[in-house]
Design goal:
Layout (H helix, E strand, L loop, with lengths): L28 H5 L1 H5 L8 H9 L4 E3 L10 E8 L4 E9 L5 E8 L2 H8 L2
Antiparallel strand pairs: 1-2, 2-3, 3-4
């Protein structure tokens, strides 16, 4: 079972701490919640509610832009979901109207886990 390391004052690259709920998963809910059907049974399906929990984790870490992005338009947030019981990586994109879209979410890999744990 995952347990949150409650690090004080973790901040993203902009120095901002507060995050608000992802505005919209409308176009990507099915993509996120049915990963095992696309990628095989070893892939974990991620409920949007779990992704929102991880995104709002006060100990979460944000990379904006996402270090793995080809375009530099997305942000990567790594956080814990108590409901899921593990760390989740959430990829979001803001549009020109500052609307925050959930692009995808997946179980954090070992690299993202190290970022979250600060090692």
């Amino acid at each position: 079972m995952w347990s949150a390391p409650y690090a004080a004052n973790r901040r993203d690259e902009t120095g901002l701490r507060a995050r608000v709920r992802v505005d919209d998963w409308l176009h990507r809910r099915e993509h996120t919640e049915q990963q095992s059907q696309r990628k095989g049974e070893t892939e974990q399906n991620i409920l949007v509610e779990w992704a929102d929990e991880a995104y709002l984790d006060k100990s979460g870490v944000t990379f904006d832009p996402d270090y793995a992005s080809d375009t530099g338009l997305s942000a990567r947030t790594i956080g814990g979901s108590d409901s899921a019981g593990f760390l989740i990586t959430v990829i979001t994109v803001r549009d020109e109207d500052d609307h925050l879209w959930g692009a995808t979410a997946f179980r954090a890999n070992s690299t993202d886990e190290r970022h979250y744990l600060g090692s």
